[in-house]
Amino acid sequence: MLAVLPKAARSYWEELMSTGTFAFQSAYARRLRAEGKAEGKAEGKAEAEARAVLEVLDARGFQVPTDARARITSCSDLDQLVRWVRRAAVIQTIDDLFA
């Protein structure tokens, strides 16, 4: 449709159809947006803690097997990840991390 419109009409049509910077104002939309932000922050913290576990293990000279690395990076439980960071500082084997 745009291809057959004159330039002025095409510009008007594009402006008419654009959403601009419309912000949803309903309580429902605000709640969903807040939940999404909170979820994103939690995911970001989990990723950071998982990286911390792997960094401590690396600093201590551990070669982390693929299955252990997958278990660490897929974990979304912040409390568990914090426990693993602390354990990573004192364990003797990778298996001790998950004991």
How large a portion of the residues is in β-strands, by DSSP E? under 5%
How many beta strands in the DSSP annotation?
A: 0
Order of helices and strands: HHHHH
Which sheet architecture does the biggest sheet show? none
- Low-pLDDT segments: none
Query: How would you classify the helix and strand content by structural class?
Result: mainly alpha
Query: Please, how many helices?
Result: 5
State the end-to-end distance: 64 Å
- What is the share of helical residues? 55-70%
Instruction: Using the CA coordinates, give the radius of gyration.
Output: 24 Å
Shape: elongated
Mean pLDDT: 84
Question: What key attributes describe this structure?
Answer:
99 residues, 5 helices, elongated
Report on the structure:
The protein is mainly alpha-helical and 99 residues long. The protein has a domain at 43-99. Helix content is 70%, strand content 0%. The chain is built from five helices and no strands. The protein has helices at residues 7-17, 27-59, 66-74, 78-88, 94-98. It is elongated.
Short description:
The chain has about 100 residues and is mainly α. About 70% of the residues lie in helices and about 0% in strands. The mean pLDDT is about 85.
Could you outline the blueprint of secondary structure elements for this entry?
Layout: H1 7-17, H2 27-59, H3 66-74, H4 78-88, H5 94-98
Helix pairs in contact: 2-3, 2-4
